[in-house]
Amino acid sequence: MPHHSHPIYIACIAAAVAVPLMAPHVVLSEPCCAQSATIDPAEADESDWVGAKNQVATSMLQFSESLTERWGMPQEVKEGGYPGIDLRDVAGYPALIGHRYEQQGLVGGQYVLYQRHQFASNEFIGHFLHVKDLLVRTYGTPRQDNVIWLNDLYQPLPGYWDVAVDIGHLVYSASWTTPTTCLALTLKGDTHTKLTLDVSRRTNACAGHPVL
């Protein structure tokens, strides 16, 4: 099955587009477009894949926990980097991270991991399932857990489900509610596949409130 690479400049383009909407509310901590190390799929082994899954899942969990510990905190303006967006390298994938502030302080954040093929087929489906498993162990059973086929062209071909995600035919999603926090994990594609974790401070019923 052919693989499509998504260089880090794609994330930087997305950052540039998002800046006008996010700049008044976002804390920046790291520079944009730093070159990341990638793994040649031909040289990757099972330990690389397991390590990448663990790193991605742990990073997303740490992000959610850091927000839940700081709800209502005022914005800390940091110097340097790309205005309005925190771009990081996580296990060889570009990740965009934003924090949303309102008058009452920190109220939400979003972590977006962009696909770059490094391992076997269905790579990002594997990441979604691994992140979801860690969130289940942390926050309990999801209140919603969905696999949605918007077009079933590739449904009989499990080896091509990552293609189905990439072109918008297949969406994975799960969400959790705690006394203080709403969390939503989503895997979907348009021009490229994105694994997204939305975290927001709970005020009433949980609802989607994207940041990036």
Q: What does this molecule look like?
A:
A 7-stranded antiparallel beta sheet has the order 1-2-3-7-6-5-4, sandwiched between helices. The N terminus is likely disordered. The longest helix is centred in the first third of the chain and has 23 residues. The protein has 212 residues and is an alpha+beta fold. It starts with 7 loop residues before the first helix and ends in an 11-residue tail after the last strand.
Quickly count the helices. Answer: 4
Distance between the termini: 31 Å
**Structural shape:** globular
Q: Find the count of extended strands (DSSP E, 2+ residues).
A: 7
β-strand percent reads 25-35%
Structural class given helices, strands, pairing? Answer: alpha+beta
In which order are the strands of the major sheet placed? 1-2-3-7-6-5-4
Low-confidence stretches: 1-42
Helix/strand layout:
Blueprint lengths: L7 H15 L23 H23 L17 E5 L2 E10 L2 E10 L8 H17 L4 E6 L11 H6 L3 E8 L3 E9 L3 E9 L11
Antiparallel strand pairs: 1-2, 2-3, 3-7, 4-5, 5-6, 6-7
Helix pairs in contact: 2-3
Essential attributes:
212 residues; alpha+beta; 7-stranded antiparallel sheet; 4 helices; 27% strand; disordered N terminus
Briefly summarize what is shown:
The chain has 212 residues and is α+β, with helices and mostly antiparallel strands.
